[in-house]
Each structure stands twice: as C-alpha cells, then as structure tokens.
C-alpha cells in the first residue's frame, strides 16, 4: 500500500473504494476473475494508474472496451484533469460502470454504451486507451478513427507487444499513422513495468475509418435508374 499511496496520493481513498467494488460486485458479476481479487492492486490498479505518465494534461480520453473500468476508471481517479469516456458495448458492463462512477463520484467520467466504430461518427479525442481488448491489428482499426490528427492510441500490452506491433504494420500503414513506439511506464512502481504500444494518428485515420464503415453494394448490383 506504500506504492499505492505514492501513485494515487490524495485520491487513494477513492481507489480503495473502487478496489472494494471490484472485489465484490466485479467478481460477482464476472467482470473480474475470483483469483484476481487478491492481486487487484499490483496487477490491475497500479498497473493501470502508471499509464497516466504518458497522457498529456487536460486530455480527452476514450477507454475502448472498458469492461470493469481498467484502465479508464483508474485514470479518472488518479488524473482528475482528464475527461474520460468509458466506451463499452455490453449492457451488463455499462450498468456496472455507471454504478461505479456514481459510487466514486467521478465527475470527469462519461459512460457510453456502443462500439468504437459507431462512436467514431461523433467522437474525436486526444487519447484512446485499451487493455486486453484485441490484438493490435484489430484494435487499431477500431481506435484510430476516434483520434484527432496527432492523437495517440495507448494500448496496454504484455510480452508480445513488439510482435503485435510488427504484425499490425500493414493496418497502421493503411491508416497513415505518424509514429509508433514501445514504452515502459511505472518503473519502480510495478514489476515488471507496464508496457504500452503508442501509435500516433496521422491526418487520414478518420477518412479510412469512414471508408471501412461505408456499406458496400452486392457484387454485380446496379444502381436503378429513375
């Protein structure tokens, strides 16, 4: 708890309420595995909180596939300057997230039910976060259209981070990304440090996303003349 106090500072009591809610309702509703309850702090809360090191001041953040709120809720707790949208398609999870936000009194959080492909029609943000959602090649296709030019996808990844980044090369090239890199955050706080894949969006991400969402006519169909 010494490290948790260092990471969360004055927000530690809020983080403790969140941890208790995860260990109770989160496990009961299947959002957190029963075995995770005893290692919530190092494996989940602190692991997510250190991602804040990579996020600019006052950023608008969308947490894609937020699930139990990791990392979105944690980032909102540790960084009240952020405006965080928790984007989740499943009703039972958005219900949990809304209860969580009310319980913790997080005025900087909005819970939104839906898929990233749909949200990209009216969301344009500085940062997209994601943890244990999908391999990077698929995740990039969902996340990049949500970003403003120069915005960043921060994907929490494990030991396959470098391999996933290499495999996602063709997708990232198609979206015209500016740069990619692997980052490690939380040194001295979590062991091993949290690994992030950072992808910086170019000018074309939104246009590519709209092309992918555009309905296609069946092969051989013709436009009917009036």
UniProtKB/TrEMBL annotation:
> What GO molecular function terms would the record report?
methyltransferase activity
User: Where found?
Assistant: Cytoplasm
Note the Gene3D superfamilies from the entry: Vaccinia Virus protein VP39
Annotated region Disordered: the residues are 204-226
What's this protein's family per the entry? Answer: Belongs to the methyltransferase superfamily. RNA methyltransferase RsmG family.
Q: What InterPro entries is this protein classified in? A: rRNA_ssu_MeTfrase_G (IPR003682), SAM-dependent_MTases_sf (IPR029063)
Q: What is this protein called?
A: Ribosomal RNA small subunit methyltransferase G
Documented EC number(s): 2.1.1.-
Which residue ranges have biased composition labelled Basic residues?
213-226
Its taxonomic path starts at: Bacteria, Bacillati, Actinomycetota, Actinomycetes, Streptosporangiales
Q: Which UniProt keywords apply?
A: Cytoplasm, Methyltransferase, rRNA processing, S-adenosyl-L-methionine, Transferase
Q: Name one Pfam family in it.
A: GidB
Describe the function of this protein. Specifically methylates the N7 position of a guanine in 16S rRNA.
Give the residues the record marks as binding S-adenosyl-L-methionine: 65, 70, 116-117, 131
Which terms does the UniProt entry file under GO BP?
methylation
